[in-house]
Structures are given as structure tokens and as C-alpha cells.
């Protein structure tokens, strides 16, 4: 039997889906027939996603949604589910990096990395699972957050974009906060896989190596000029990934037919970086 990667009739929600790896994930799902919901914070990607939408003949909807604004995140979950339809696949992809020696780092920088890379994906996933369970995305009060109904067979997929920075200490740049945020995120997925299996929700992560996007394109002048050479030297395939190579893997990993028994897994996609 051929493995189906036909997402016709499925709805996929991708944070930061208008740029970089997120845009490649958007394009890969659109190519596979999915309706896509994309969030952004800095620049409305409606023009770029319209091209993808026209090319593949699928709708792509765009919502403004800063990941650290939990109230807005919960609002978007409810709004998009109503306006577009019930989401089948969630891809928390948005993330930020910071190259900084820890002794030079401010509290607000540390907060920014943790809130964007670690707390935001967790609150987004919690909001969706609560919504799917009929509890409402938002936790109403800490004293009475509401009660799930017990077992459920939701058949939903969550695929989180983490990083090999959560597995190994990248060099020569210093990015302790980013590394810690991604290590925490990968572990959050494993923990949530255990919690949400009873609801029929699988949650996995991917850990890419270096991918040619805005995130790595501007090392600081001076010492940073040599970094890309080092990054490439340490990557056995001797190049950075194209974002499309990541997008395609995400589509494969989220198939509702073929990925039913995979949960709590982290897939490293790094051109061999972590084999050294
Ligand atoms: N590039 C790499 O080498 C690499 C390697 C491993 C893992 N990753 C991970 O892959 C993911 C995507 O990175 P990328 O390389 O595509 O980076 P990018 O080109 O810099 O894009 C970052 C994305 O995150 C969104 N974003 C940033 N801050 C946000 C916030 N506060 N709330 C909501 N969205 C926010 C951006 O939205 P706007 O467009 O609205 O600004 C943008 O879509 C990140 O989680 C990153 O850590 C990247």
C-alpha cells in the first residue's frame, strides 16, 4: 500500500509560517493539499503565502500572534478554529536566537529567549489540546482550570521545531540561553507525549542542524566572519540545509495515517553534525 502524504481536507497551524523554515513547512503542507494557518509577529506574510496558495490551490490564512502573548495565542486558537476549521496538525516553529556570552546577558534577553522558544510553544500546545478537549484554550483560573473528560481519541499531531543546539553545545558562538531553551523544548515534547497519548495526540520534535535562513545569515562583524566556515566544516555533508529539506520531513512526520505509533520522538536532521 502506498504511504499517503495527501493532506486534502486537513488543517495545519504553523507559528512563524511566513518566513524561513516555517515558510518551507507552509509550502510543503500546501503542496500536499492542506489548508494552512500561519502566524506572524513582525511582517505580515500575506503576499508571500498568497503565491504558495495560488500555486497549489489551497487556502492559507494569516493571523498576527506573538508567541509570548498567551492571551492572544488562546484567542487565535479559538478564532482560527471557528473561522477556518478544527486544526489537525500544529507546528510550533517560531523561534529566536541570541549570540551572547552569558556574563554579558541581560535579564530581559534571557526572558525573551525562554519566553519565545520554550514557554510559547508549551502554552500554544496546551491551548490546542484544551480546545480539542472542549475545555476552551485558556486556563480560566489557577484554582479551577477545568477538567478534561478522561480518555479521548482526537487523532491530532503536534510537531515542534527544536534544534540540535538542545543536544550539543554549538561553537564558536556563545548561545547558552538558546541551547537551554531548545533542550527544554525537546524534553517538553517527550513529557507531553506521555501526558497526551491518552487523548490520541502525538507530539514529536525535529532538531535541525544549520539551515540557510535569516537566523544564521548575519554573524557579528569581526570574530563572527569565520563562524560559517566552522559550522560548515563541522557538518559532514559540507553545506547548510535548505529550508525545503526540513519542510518535507515535517510533512512526512505528521501524516495521520503513517505516524500513528510515533510520539515523544526527536528526529535529528543535521547533515551529520552530531555524528562527530
Ligand atoms: N536556521 C537554523 O539554522 C535553525 C537550526 C535549528 C533550529 N532552528 C529553529 O527553526 C525555527 C525557525 O527558525 P528560522 O531559521 O526559520 O528563523 P527565522 O528565519 O529567523 O524565522 C523566525 C520565525 O519565528 C517567528 N518569530 C520570532 N519571534 C516570534 C515571536 N515572539 N512570536 C511569534 N513568532 C515569532 C518569526 O516571525 P516573523 O516573520 O513575524 O518575524 C519567523 O517566522 C526556530 O525555532 C529556530 O530556533 C533553526
Automatic annotation (TrEMBL):
Pfam families: adh_short_C2 (PF13561). Keywords: Oxidoreductase. InterPro entries: NAD(P)-bd_dom_sf, SDR_fam. Gene3D superfamilies: NAD(P)-binding Rossmann-like Domain (3.40.50.720). Signal peptide: none annotated. It comes from the Eukaryota. The keyword Nuclease does not apply. One of its GO terms (molecular function) is oxidoreductase activity, acting on the CH-OH group of donors, NAD or NADP as acceptor. PANTHER family: 3-OXOACYL-[ACYL-CARRIER-PROTEIN] REDUCTASE FABG, SHORT-CHAIN DEHYDROGENASES/REDUCTASES FAMILY MEMBER. Belongs to the short-chain dehydrogenases/reductases (SDR) family. This is 2,4-dienoyl-CoA reductase. It comes from Kwoniella dejecticola CBS 10117.
Amino acid at each position: 500500500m502506498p504511504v499517503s502524504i495527501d493532506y486534502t481536507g486537513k488543517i495545519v497551524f504553523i507559528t512563524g509560517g511566513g518566513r524561513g523554515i516555517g515558510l518551507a513547512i507552509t509550502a510543503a503542507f500546501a503542496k500536499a493539499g492542506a489548508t494552512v494557518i500561519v502566524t506572524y509577529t513582525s511582517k505580515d506574510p500575506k503576499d508571500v503565502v498568497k503565491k504558495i496558495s495560488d500555486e497549489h490551490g489551497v487556502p492559507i490564512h494569516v493571523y498576527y500572534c506573538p508567541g509570548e502573548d498567551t492571551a492572544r495565542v488562546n484567542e487565535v486558537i479559538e478564532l482560527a478554529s471557528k473561522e477556518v476549521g478544527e486544526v489537525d496538525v500544529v507546528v510550533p516553529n517560531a523561534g529566536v536566537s541570541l549570540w551572547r556570552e552569558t556574563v554579558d546577558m541581560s535579564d530581559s534577553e534571557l526572558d525573551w529567549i525562554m519566553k519565545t522558544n520554550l514557554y510559547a510553544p508549551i502554552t500554544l500546545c496546551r491551548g490546542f489540546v484544551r480546545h480539542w478537549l472542549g475545555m476552551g484554550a485558556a486556563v480560566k483560573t489557577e484554582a479551577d482550570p477545568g477538567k478534561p473528560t478522561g480518555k479521548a481519541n482526537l487523532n491530532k499531531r503536534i510537531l515542534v521545531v527544536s534544534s540540535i543546539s538542545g543536544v550539543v553545545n554549538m561553537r564558536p558562538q556563545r548561545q547558552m540561553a538558546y541551547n537551554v531553551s531548545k533542550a527544554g523544548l525537546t524534553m517538553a515534547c517527550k513529557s507531553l507525549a506521555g501526558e497526551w497519548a491518552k487523548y490520541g495526540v502525538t507530539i514529536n520534535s525535529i532538531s535541525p542542524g544549520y539551515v540557510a535562513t535569516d537566523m544564521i545569515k548575519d554573524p557579528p562583524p569581526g570574530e563572527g566572519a569565520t563562524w560559517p566556515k566552522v559550522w560548515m566544516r563541522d557538518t559532514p555533508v559540507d553545506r547548510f540545509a535548505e529550508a525545503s529539506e526540513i519542510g518535507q520531513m515535517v510533512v512526512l512526520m505528521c501524516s495521520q495515517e503513517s505516524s500513528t505509533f510515533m510520539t515523544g520522538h526527536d528526529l535529528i536532521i543535521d547533515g551529520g553534525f552530531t555524528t562527530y
